[in-house]
# Entry
Amino acid sequence: MSDLTPRPEHKFSFGLWTVGHPGRDPFGEVTRPPIEPWDIVYSLADQGVWGVSFHDDDLIPPGSTPGEREGVLKKFRKALDDTGLVVSMATTNLFWNPVFKEGAFTANDPEIRRYAIQKTMRSIDLGAELGAPTQVFWGGREGVEAVAAKPPRDAFDRYQEAFNFLCEYVKDRGYPTRFALEPKPNEPRGDTFLPTIGHMLAFIESLEHPEMVGVNPEVAHEKMVGLNFYHGVAQAIWAGKLFHIDLNAQQVGRYDQDLRFGSEGVKDAFFLVKLLEDSGYAGPRHFDARPYRVEQDEGIWEFAAGCMRTYLALADKAHRFDDDQEIQEALAQAGVPGLATETLGAYTPELAQELLASEFDTEALANRGYHNDKLDQLVIDLILGLR
Ligand code: GCO
Ligand code: MN
Ligand code: MN
# Structure
């Protein structure tokens, strides 16, 4: 087993709202006191973490005066300088304040939409000031309970308008910021807008500057409705759109649990880590997860350490997968190398003729066995530490 100690080169990052989560849930009050942002930075650095992310309101308490804002930034910057931690991402809280209860960029009231865009511009400024390369957008309130109350084609127009405006703002200011849009299929509103990675990828292509915009998929969001996260992330990578990722764990059919990475669905977690490692994804390994509500003090940091330990252990298994002779043979038996070869190549009339004239021994082709059970069992053995 290789060294499982997290180090900055692993590019692990945590949001202030994750390790700082006070344990509130819809059924009960907070179970832990708040932790100051700079104290979080020092503790994360002690754990070998590389980056920190935040919502505008996590860092600068709403209603702060300019002087108070400067005071916070001074302490936060000092913690970053002292530890070498980077700001890996910034995002805008467009869901907590009741002003957003009917939506933010898709609120029916134009005044609320303009306020949401203004708040986001300020958040983009804050992120740029602190060196965040990515601005994440989670449209938590862009949904609806009463279907008739929000004609979806108008909502798409307004969502598109907001992103076109904000992309121009970034260009106008000369920031290097890229946007990463985070899909979620439900919660907190009944039905959420742009529910999956696939919906989001299609929406991005409708924007005036699609090159500035990618996705921020989250394990819990696809998993809770039973979708295959691995395939969704693979499609985002294939499209060149994986700008950021939210790692956590989730049980199918439950509310958004945001559990410690790898704590549920170890096999899914293995293939996800393998995908990220094999693809050369160079962005943050960002945990949008929170400690169990029963945790206190050092329990918070045990949680954080667990996320990273499991990631590193699975990355190690992913490398063993490549070096394992028997697994490589099983891959060949499964016909995997064949999928990487071109089917026909580019169309020519001659090739079409040739294909039309070809004969296929469909019986022989249909009678082929693929040894997929054997391959899958080898993977299970690998994960269980049996090889
Ligand atoms: C959730 C979301 C959020 C976002 C965060 C960043 O389900 O609550 O995942 O945690 O990731 O607001 O925009
Ligand atoms: Mn979540
Ligand atoms: Mn998230």
User: Anything to note?
Assistant: The first strand starts at residue 12 and ends at 15.
